[in-house]
Amino acid sequence: MHLTQSTDLALRVLMLLGARNERRSAAELAERLKVPPQHMAKIVQRLRRDGFVSTTRGRGGGVVLAGGVTETPVGEIVRALEGPGEAVECDSPPCPLRDGCHLRGALRAAQAAFLASLDQVRLRDLVADPTGPVLLSLAPPASAGAPSLAEEGL
């Protein structure tokens, strides 16, 4: 299965946020992951809508992981971001092999196995060593103007 670029970046955002329990601005996330700020804003909106992050506007605002997200299976995150789509489209336009083809079933089984293997991994596993130190180097401590979650008592 091939993940969309948006899902790939969303997973990276969750990993960066999971490396430190600190609020980050969408602009900082865009800079760290080398993507346009407008694209990052859309990714953050999607993650917020799906309940994976919380956002706060204004001075000292930003993006933070929602409670308990580090325990979420990666397969669940991918399902939410990718939607229920199929690996192949057989109905539009109608495929002439549709009635006698086994490809769709085989690809459905492969997709289910792919997601089942991701269900064995939790977001916290993706930020563990040896990845953790690399993530921390990409996400230095929040600036002095933005309070950490620990300072806010969250």
UniProtKB/TrEMBL annotation:
InterPro entries: Tscrpt_reg_Rrf2, WH-like_DNA-bd_sf, WH_DNA-bd_sf. One of its GO terms (cellular component) is cytosol. Keywords: DNA-binding. Gene3D superfamilies: Winged helix-like DNA-binding domain superfamily/Winged helix DNA-binding domain. Pfam families: Rrf2. Signal peptide: none annotated. GO terms for molecular function: DNA binding; DNA-binding transcription factor activity. Its cofactor is [2Fe-2S] cluster. It comes from the Bacteria. PANTHER family: HTH-TYPE TRANSCRIPTIONAL REPRESSOR NSRR (PTHR33221:SF4), WINGED HELIX-TURN-HELIX TRANSCRIPTIONAL REGULATOR, RRF2 FAMILY (PTHR33221). This is Rrf2 family nitric oxide-sensitive transcriptional repressor. It comes from Actinomadura luteofluorescens.
